[in-house]
Amino acid sequence: MQNQIKSLITASKKGNQVAQMQIYDSYCNAIFTVALRYLNNEEDAKDAMQEGFLKAFLNIETYQPKATFGSWLKRIIINQCLDVLKKNQLRFDDVEVSDLQIIDEDNWHFDNTITKQDILYTIDQLSDKYKIVVKLYLVEGYDHEEISEILEIPVKTSRTHLRRGKLKLQELLKVKYNEARY
């Protein structure tokens, strides 16, 4: 599969539209899922996915195989989704770390009544600025430096938004856990 993708990328760099369609077909479902995670609206996610693929094919010459093509493409799509959110007035404010309250997370346990789907659904209940950072960090696996670069915010703001988002997530999941117990 990886060799096939490499040859499709080489052909795409030469402007081969059939190769581009094959790349699109290989990645569209996964990329749509990523876009939907951020935009929560199928039409917006489809639009962002289309725009992201267009940007990827227009800039495919810049792809370097030091990262997988899927990772490179996913980053483009996430950036496209964030552009949509920014156009909708989402702002990531610089925040002071000094007013952040720290609690002991190690004593927080749930039984298996809380599912992965519950956690993902609960992440979507967070405010947008926390939700985006939590998704980029916990779901997509980006570190704070990468999040800082993607969102154009200081690293400390990324850390603070993640911390606050995780605290709110814990709070919401505790409510869910308590409801499930009774």
Automatic annotation (TrEMBL):
Gene3D superfamilies linked to this entry: 1.10.1740.10, Winged helix-like DNA-binding domain superfamily/Winged helix DNA-binding domain (1.10.10.10)
Domain RNA polymerase sigma-70 region per the UniProt entry, residue ranges: 24-89
UniProt keyword terms in alphabetical order: Sigma factor, Transcription, Transcription regulation
One Pfam entry name: Sigma70_r4_2
Domain RNA polymerase sigma factor 70 region 4 type: 117-169
SUPFAM superfamilies: Sigma2 domain of RNA polymerase sigma factors, Sigma3 and sigma4 domains of RNA polymerase sigma factors
InterPro entries documented for this protein: RNA_pol_sigma-70-like, RNA_pol_sigma-70_dom, RNA_pol_sigma70_r2, RNA_pol_sigma70_r4_t2, RNA_pol_sigma_r2, RNA_pol_sigma_r3/r4-like, WH-like_DNA-bd_sf
PANTHER family, per database record: RNA POLYMERASE ECF-TYPE SIGMA FACTO, RNA POLYMERASE SIGMA FACTOR
Family: Belongs to the sigma-70 factor family. ECF subfamily.
Protein name according to UniProt: RNA polymerase sigma factor
Source organism: Winogradskyella pulchriflava
